Amino acid sequence: MGRWEPDARGRMIRAAMELFAERGFEQTTAGDIAERAGVTERTFFRYFADKREVLFDGSPELVQAAHDAILAAPAEAPPLEAALAGIVAAGGILEGRRDHAVRRSRIIAATPSLQERELLKLAAMVDTIAKALHERGVDEPTARLAAHSAVTVFQLAFERWVSAAEPPDFASCVAETAAALRALR
Amino acid sequence: MGRWEPDARGRMIRAAMELFAERGFEQTTAGDIAERAGVTERTFFRYFADKREVLFDGSPELVQAAHDAILAAPAEAPPLEAALAGIVAAGGILEGRRDHAVRRSRIIAATPSLQERELLKLAAMVDTIAKALHERGVDEPTARLAAHSAVTVFQLAFERWVSAAEPPDFASCVAETAAALRALR
DNA sequence: GCGCGTGATGTCAGGGACTGCCATCACTAC
DNA sequence: GTAGTGATGGCAGTCCCTGACATCACGCGC
């Protein structure tokens, strides 16, 4: 299956990350990204539903990993524990590309419009996790509660993982955050 | 301090809710809303930062109520309990306008772009609650964890409150959801 | 009553996000 | 080599949103 230059999608993603980091998201035009990637603006919008989406390319894989890990968790694991197994699995995908994750999260932190999109992706993760728990036989209210809690742990563990000077592994960030959550009163 | 017709903001909000309910958010242009409200599109954008914002007018008051209630909670209340007091206070503002809240939430549920904005507002609530807890002397990681948990309770309690056939009071929805959260293991 | 200042509104021009439509190109299969 | 297929380019158009400037209604001092 041929094409002009290979990996147009990857080129656009890299171009976007560079430009967003250099001059900021709002100061970067979709045409700018396309130009640096060597394609047309029209092509950009064929790959990405909108300008923000270019930063959220791997999101479905993350969610899928969480889903699979939850269904693979031991049957006797309680809901929150199973959900956290999913979080750890999702984090595992990031593990190899901490550098990229750090730059990406800096860009998002600087732009409310991108934060919105990130929150929407996290909400999708909540839904998927709740669905997976429900498939395990957890009643729906409990599943949704556990899913929300697990994604909260994901968010806070991610921040910890990203901001630590000495890069720890994601799983231990999750463990620490989860312990703090259980200690809440 | 006079003006043409009074309450331009209110007219635009009502016009937007009507139109969004009638034909949907994306099928409604900013010009449509302005026209029905008897103003210009330009005026619409002077009142609201963007087309979505017209549905989130009372948001700061909600957040402020939560903040104040948290600072007013008994000093010996543990973090999560104080945060939940804030949630109940925020819910109290909605109490009198359940009808409006229901219609609004239906519109938002039908539009991803509006869900994004809602999630951003909830994130702002998380930040404010965490800040309030921190002012009470709670250490920051715990404060953020409790804030996230409290807002999760808000979301799920709100859904319960909105979807119940026989309208219960918001506070008891919060109590039930919070109990389920504490039962999570 | 009357001009004046002030704030809200209207008008206009324009850039950027996105979409639909159609032409064109590279590559594949026959 | 030719037809088919999928990716791309080009173009027109709508809508979102903004800046700049004119205009209007009102309160105020006189």
In short:
The structure is a homodimer of 185-residue chains. Chain A is built from nine helices and no strands.
Task: Provide an overview of this structure.
The structure is a homodimer of 185-residue chains. By secondary structure, chain A is mostly helical. Chain A contains nine helices and no strands. The first copy, chain A, has helices spanning 8-23, 30-37, 41-47, 59-72, 79-95, 98-109, 112-135, 140-163, 170-183. The first copy, chain A, is elongated. The termini of chain A are far apart. The interface between A and B is medium-sized, with 28 and 27 residues. The first copy, chain A, binds a DNA duplex (30 and 30 nucleotides) through helix 3.
Topology:
The structure is a homodimer of 185-residue chains.
Chain A: H1 8-23, H2 30-37, H3 41-47, H4 59-72, H5 79-95, H6 98-109, H7 112-135, H8 140-163, H9 170-183
Helix pairs in contact in A: 1-2, 2-3, 4-5, 4-7, 5-8, 5-9, 7-8, 8-9
Chain A binds a DNA duplex (30 and 30 nucleotides) through α3.
Q: Which features characterize this protein?
A:
9 helices, mainly alpha, 185 residues, DNA-binding, homodimer
- The count of strands of chain A amounts to 0
From the alpha-carbon coordinates, what is the Rg of chain A to the nearest angstrom?
Answer: 18 Å
Question: Can you summarize the main beta sheet of chain A?
Answer: none
What pair of chains forms the biggest interface?
A: A-B, 28 and 27 residues
Summing up helix and strand content along with how strands pair, one would put the structural category of chain A as mainly alpha
Please, what is the oligomeric state? homodimer
Round the mean pLDDT of chain A to the nearest integer and report it: 96
